[in-house]
Amino acid sequence: MYFDGMYGLGDNIYQRAVVRALPGINYLRTPWPQLYADLPNIRCVRPATRLRTQAKNAARAWNWATPPASLAPRKADYVRHPGTMLEGLCAAYGVSLPAVTFDLPVCGAPCIPGEYIVGAPRKYVVIRPATVRAEWRADARNPDTQALYAAALAARRAGYMVVSVADLQEGHEWLDGEPPPAQFVWHKGELSVEMLLGLVAGASAVIGGVGWMVPAAIAYKRPMLLLHGGWGAANGPHRIFDSRMDISRIHQVFPDNYCQCRDARHACDKHISNLDEILAKFFAGIAHEQPSDVVA
After folding, report:
1. Is residue 193 within 8 Å of residue 57, measured between CB atoms?
2. Which of 41, 81, 236, 273 would you label with 253, given CA atoms 20 to 30 Å apart?
3. Burial code of 129-163, b = ≥16 C-beta within 10 A, e = fewer?
4. Which domains does the chain have, with CATH numbers?
5. Distance between CA atoms of 207 and 224, rounded to whole angstroms?
6. pLDDT at 293 over 60
7. Do the beta carbons of residue 219 and residue 104 sit within 8 Å?
8. Percent of the chain surpassing pLDDT 90
C-alpha cells in the first residue's frame, strides 16, 4: 500500500504506532523519515510541503523510496474522525489494534557543555516555549506564558538546568510572550529532529503545552508537566490521549476555566490558580526519575 500520511511532527509519532502494525511493505509519504528508520515494513516517500519546518527536514539527505507507478497514494489522517487521534489513524489505515507499541527510535542527544550540568549526568529539564506560526495560527492552544515562565523558574530552584527549544524565524514563527528563563537555549532550529528527540529522551522531565512534545514524552517514558491552554474541543485529553497509551507520567494542569471552544485564535482564559503548589508537587515527584535508557 501507498499512504499519504500526516505531516506534523507530533502527528507522525502517533502515526508510527499505527503503521508499524501494517502487514507487508508499505510506502509512506512523510517529511519525518527519521521516525520510521527502524521499521522494516515502512518505505518513506519524500512529500511536497511548503510548511517551513517540515520542508526543511524533508530537504535533508535521506534514502527516499520511489513507490511503484501502479500504486496511487491513499490519504490517511484523523481530521474528520470524532474520536481520539489514535482511533482516527487506526480507521484511516484500516487496522484494528487492541494495543499499540508507542515508542520512538534510539536517538543521540546534543552535547550540553559540562558547566551547565547540575548534579547527576543529564540532570536537565526541556521546556517548549509558546510560539506562534504565521503559516498555521493556533494561538488559543498555547499555554499561559506566565505559567511556562514560572515552571522554568521552579525547575531551576529544584536544581535542574533548563533547556529551551524552538525553531524561530522572523516573520514565520515567533515567541508568544516572554521566553522562559533557560540556562541553555536552542531557539533557531539548531537541532536536527534526531537531536531534538534525543534531548527529550535523556531529560529528567519536559514542560510544555499540547504539541509534539506530548507524544514524544510518552514514547520515551519521560515525566511531563503538560500545561493546557485553550481550544479544548480539538486539544483536550479526550482527543490527544487514548486508553492504549501509557499517560501515567503526564501531569496535566488545566486552566481554572478550561475553554472548550473550537476557535484556534480565541482569547481563551488560561489562568491557573495554585500554580506554585502544583509546580512544587511536580518537581518533588520527579526527584528520583532517571533519564531514559534509549539515548545512544
Report:
1. yes
2. 81
3. bbbbbeeeebbbbbbbbebbbbbbebbbebebbbb
4. 2-93 (no CATH), 114-285 (3.40.50)
5. 6
6. no
7. yes
8. 91
C-alpha cell, 258: 478550561
107 confidence band (pLDDT: 50, 70, 90): confident
Q: How far apart are CA 279 and CA 88, in angstroms?
A: 34
268-283 pLDDT per residue, tens = 999 999 999 999 999 9
C-alpha cell at 44: 518513506
Three-state secondary structure of 95-140:
CCCCCCCCCCCCECCCCCCHHHCCCCCCCEEEECCCEEECCCCCHH
Q: Any idea of the CA torsion for 110, 132, 251, 202, to the nearest 10 degrees? A: 0
Could you give the CA distance from residue 62 to residue 49 in angstroms, rounded to a whole number? 16
The mean pLDDT of the chain is: 93
Alpha-carbon radius of gyration of the chain: 19
pLDDT level of residue 118 (50, 70, 90 thresholds): very low
42-77 pLDDT, tens digit per residue, is 999 999 999 999 999 999 999 999 999 999 999 999
What pLDDT digit, counting tens, does each position of 13-45 carry?
A: 999 999 999 999 999 999 999 999 999 999 999
Residue 276: CB atoms within 10 A of its CB come to 11
At residue 217, the 3 state secondary structure works out as helix
Pair 249, 285: CB distance under 8 Å:
no
| Nearest-10 Cα torsion for 132, 36, 292, 253 | 30
